[in-house]
């Protein structure tokens, strides 16, 4: 098989004198989870849920001096979601990524196709690597790079099907009306400001299909109108030996469901590298503005980090901004973390979060809860590792009671074990031939 692949590659590229590389990798990532308070408050008296999910991917990448391509064939499933003798595997397989980047002249390139958009600390645009299915976009990019200066201009336009008469986009999937945009345009500019400081600027415009309520309570349907949300801001990272500092500030404007948007986010987090065993400690906070009356006055002051890797930020149990907590009281998150080196191939990370509302209604409790996260990582060999995590939250009474059947006295916890296996199946490199 390997000889056949080499012969095919050589036959297709015998006229090319540039260096070439082809790599084929596999990814098998099963994860056991026990949930009793994950993404939403566990109702009073409810039993926990246990299951195993798995991401299975075949990753194919090729590059030379003129073009790079990448294809990610992915299946995401839950153990037991199909009968043993099923004729097919259900609708779990998909082309997760399929893109090509063409090198132009003078530092310019263009990247087209289904791809992960990930920038800075992934607060606004991130790959959501924790989720088995990840977050991808069908988009086209115009890119420029010179030394540390990078500019990405991105464009997207989404439809459900090939149509003849209209352009109504019906957002589907979890959190569809919030996450699934009809069109997007963005600009991301980044670079080094000094040897110790680097930063970036982001502007993103997202256009969503208008929706109106149907006779079924809680159900909406798309209409011909649209509304747009703009997010503008900066991110900075400073490193000076053992001390590090990151910060961000974003402002949101535009319109959501015929309501004007006037919202902001700001964060600051400092780290210090301590020693060999206690590797790092960190302390910081974030505020995402809120609104004490939701959309009732025709305006929302609630900031929503639309396409970020939210799992990374406000506690691993994902009570906030993972498909919920939109147009709500916002969030103030004061947090600390510590990273311990437990051996040459393992580490333990602990984090503590204190949550409160950015703007509570009169008479309501501002305290939302406290969470503790523990994550242990152990490298097995060069292509496999195991990660174990446990999180527990202690919720404020008003916050717990606001969720269906919630009770602040109930234990809200979540535990998981994930095995990551990523071997390289095939690798081929051809050095550049001398020009004749």
Q: What does this 3D model show about the protein?
A:
- This protein is mainly beta and about 425 residues long.
- The chain has a single domain, classed as Beta Barrel (Porin), CATH 2.40.160.
- It has 3 helices and 20 strands.
- The chain has an 18-stranded antiparallel barrel.
- Strand 10 and strand 11 form a beta hairpin.
- The longest helix is centred in the N-terminal third of the chain and has 11 residues.
- It starts with a helix and ends in a 6-residue tail after the last strand.
Protein topology:
Blueprint: H1 2-12, E1 20-36, E2 49-64, E3 67-78, E4 93-103, E5 108-115, E6 137-146, E7 149-157, H2 176-179, E8 183-192, E9 197-213, E10 220-240, E11 243-256, E12 259-273, E13 278-288, E14 299-300, E15 331-343, E16 346-356, E17 367-381, E18 384-395, H3 397-402, E19 412-421, E20 424-430
Parallel strand pairs: 12-14
Antiparallel strand pairs: 1-2, 1-19, 1-20, 2-3, 3-4, 4-5, 5-6, 6-7, 7-8, 8-9, 9-10, 10-11, 11-12, 12-13, 13-15, 15-16, 16-17, 17-18, 18-19
Radius of gyration: 24 Å
Give the CATH architecture: Beta Barrel
Kindly report the average pLDDT value.
Answer: 91
Percent range for β-strand residues: over 45%
| Global shape | globular
Query: Count of helices?
Result: 3
């Amino acid at each position: 098989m390997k000889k056949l692949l080499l012969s095919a590659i050589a036959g297709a590229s015998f006229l090319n004198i540039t260096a070439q590389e082809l790599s084929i990798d596999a990814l098998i990532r099963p994860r056991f989870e026990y949930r009793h308070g994950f993404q939403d408050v566990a109702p009073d008296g409810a039993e926990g849920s246990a299951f195993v999910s798995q991401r299975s991917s075949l990753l194919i990448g090729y590059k030379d001096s003129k073009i790079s391509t990448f294809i990610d064939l992915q299946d995401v499933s839950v153990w037991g979601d199909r009968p043993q003798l099923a004729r097919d595997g259900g609708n779990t397989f998909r082309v997760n990524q399929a893109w090509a980047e063409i090198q132009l002249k003078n530092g310019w390139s263009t990247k087209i196709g289904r791809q992960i958009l990930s920038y800075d600390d992934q607060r606004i645009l991130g790959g959501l690597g924790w989720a088995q299915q990840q977050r991808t976009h069908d988009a086209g990019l115009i890119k420029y790079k010179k030394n540390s200066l990078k500019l990405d201009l991105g464009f997207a336009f989404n439809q459900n099907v090939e149509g003849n008469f209209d352009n109504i986009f019906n957002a589907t999937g979890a959190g569809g009306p919030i996450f699934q945009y009809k069109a997007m345009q963005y600009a991301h500019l980044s670079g080094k400001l000094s040897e110790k400081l680097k930063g970036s600027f982001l502007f993103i415009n997202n256009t969503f299909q208008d929706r109106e309520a149907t006779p079924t309570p809680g159900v909406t349907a798309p209409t011909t109108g649209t509304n747009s949300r703009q997010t503008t801001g900066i991110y900075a990272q400073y490193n000076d030996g053992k001390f590090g500092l990151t910060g961000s500030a974003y402002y949101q404007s535009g319109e959501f469901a015929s309501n004007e948007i006037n919202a902001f986010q700001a964060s600051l987090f400092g780290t210090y590298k301590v020693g060999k065993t206690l590797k790092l400690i960190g302390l910081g906070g974030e505020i995402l503005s809120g609104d004490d009356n939701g959309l009732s006055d025709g305006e929302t002051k609630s900031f929503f980090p639309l396409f970020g890797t939210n799992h990374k930020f406000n506690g691993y149990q994902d009570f906030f901004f993972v498909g919920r907590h939109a147009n709500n009281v916002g969030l103030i998150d004061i947090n600390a973390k510590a990273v311990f080196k437990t051996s040459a191939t393992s580490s333990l990370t602990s984090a503590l979060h204190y949550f409160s509302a950015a703007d509570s209604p009169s008479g309501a409790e501002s305290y939302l809860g406290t969470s503790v996260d523990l994550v242990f990582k152990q490298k097995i060999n060069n292509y496999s590792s195991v990660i174990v995590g446990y999180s527990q939250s202690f919720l404020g009474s008003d916050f717990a009671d606001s969720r269906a059947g919630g009770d602040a006295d109930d234990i809200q916890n979540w535990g998981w074990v994930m095995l990551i296996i990523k071997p390289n199946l095939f690798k081929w490199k051809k050095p550049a031939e001398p020009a004749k």
